[in-house]
């Protein structure tokens, strides 16, 4: 909760005075220095952040494995380690971008 935006100025000053501590004695001008503890809250707990990081790693791992299965090790390595362009062969000048849609893999079911 952000007090500065949700509370009137008078009530904010009263809350800050109530929850702050005095850091030194009053000086000649009659002003005292006070410290206010600020509690920062995040929307995600550490457990949720950890779970999300694990989920992201698993998702990326599945994508890498799927890419290797579809395209082969050498081709997938070029794809995964390049930023924008996959390969530029002089013979065919094949350039694949990240938004390129690959055809589904063809697998023969042997029983």
TrEMBL record:
This is Bm12587. It comes from Brugia malayi (Filarial nematode worm).
